[in-house]
Amino acid sequence: MTINHQQPWPIKLALIALVIGVGGAIALWTYDLGRSFAFGPKFSAERLESLQQQVATLIAERDKLATTANTAESKENIEKSTQKQLTDQVKTLTAENLKLKDDLAFFESLMPSTTGPDGISVKRIKAELLAPNQLQYHVLIMQGGKSNHEFGGEMQLILTLVQAGKPAMMQFPDAKSGEAGKLKLLFKHYQRLEGVIVLPEGAVVKAIQVKVLEKGLQRAQQSINL
Domains of the chain (ranges plus CATH)? Predict the structure, then answer.
């Protein structure tokens, strides 16, 4: 004989509610735990402010380093500019020194008597290659003696060349250049002329002859070999 004890409905409802409540609490806890693992813990206001301060500090250090780098680059540029200026000054002083040597050669050569036909002479000729097809020349022409009048004329250069294994001649300035292209001379004691001659492709200069002309007549000449 079996005796069944049947519980009243209010107790059953209370047990069901308890089970549902505990299950819900467990589910909510599990959800929060999953969010914590997935997204990390929530930041407090103090933590956020601390991170903002660290970011600001890093930005300030970055800007400071950038400023230091720019300052160093500016100093380097200034040093390069100063070095270039010094190099240019050295070149200028070297050129002036060469001119002073020419002047010294002129004054040392002054004599009471004339130094050529009617006192006109080509005192100094210098030539050097700036590039394979560029020849730079320096010529000093003088009027010696006791002449007090100004000399007016022109200068011509005759170049002896070797081109493609054959001898050749070149006149500078070209006779076809007209009056505007002539190397004019107008001086009382001396005059210095310098310039650059563009050579034909592959030409090699062997000698240079300088002629001084007055109204088409030759007054002086001088040659050098290179």
Answer: 115-225 (2.70.50.60)
